[in-house]
Amino acid sequence: MKTEQTTAQEQLNLIEQTIAQAKENLSNHSFGFIFWGWLVSLTALVNYVLLIFSPLGNSSYLIWPITSILGIVFIVGYYKKAEKKESHRTHLEYFLSRMWIVIGLVLVLFSVLSPFIDLNPWFFFPLVAGIGTIVSGVVLKFNPLIFGGMVLIGFPFYSVLVNGSSLLLLYAAVIIVSYLVPGYALKRYRA
Amino acid sequence: MKPLDPLLTTPLRLGAMSLLIKLKSASFVYLKEQLNATQGNLSVQLNKLKDADYIRIEKRFEGNYPLTEVKITPTGVQAFEAHVHNLKDYLHL
User: Fold this and answer.
1) pLDDT, tens digit, for every residue of B7-45?
2) I need a surface site. Which of A26, A175, B17, B47 has the fewest CB within 10 A?
3) Domains of chain B with CATH codes
4) Which among B23, B35, B87 has CB closest to A11?
5) Is B57's Cβ below 8 Å from some Cβ in A?
6) pLDDT digits (tens, 9 = 90+) for A30-43
7) How many domains are contained in chain A?
């Protein structure tokens, strides 16, 4: 790139071109949705199988804290490693990473306090995760995520139509619609 | 009509500021690739922006490798916005 003076019009053109060149790479945001999508939907399915076909009964719900802790450890390690390699970071990437850290901490805090407070996890988890998903969809201007977030937020309401262990199957399906499908669409997205 | 900021009228410095306005941070290598600049020239131009407090340059080690990270400052954001405004005035846009 040249270092000599340029005309006002050339300068405006340069600003426009350079800003367009640095536009958001949406596929960078897909990993978290794909990872949690697989982890949560598989956990729900395994929980269902254990509940129906094993003698574990309600103890099978312990699979949730186990997979969540493993998931958190893996994702923190993954993003720390990715952060070291990254050559640049957009304001959006920074905002979204901070928002999901806060949401993650709220969900961990809720998990720790849940034995002591009377709050239904089938209400709280999808609601908080759904808000994060909608905000991500809005700032990335990516409609499948907005739709996915709405499906997740609606879960506490339409899930009253389902009884007992079938709730786990419904939750797995909802996570596929709200995380996995938009996650893979985001990964393949080319602006 | 206000005069144009002489620090921002050269393409390389203006290009660097245009990229940094959109980014929270960028490595020196990323800027060099995006702006198609040579290491020496980019280094000289970035230092001029740094001396004017338009950008901040931080050097650190990532493992065994040195990493130079560049960020725009609030003064730089203000200067860039004022420059764009002046350019539009100048062109009667």
Assistant:
1) 998 999 999 999 999 999 999 999 999 999 999 999 999
2) B47
3) 6-84 (1.10.10.10)
4) B87
5) no
6) 999 999 999 999 99
7) 1
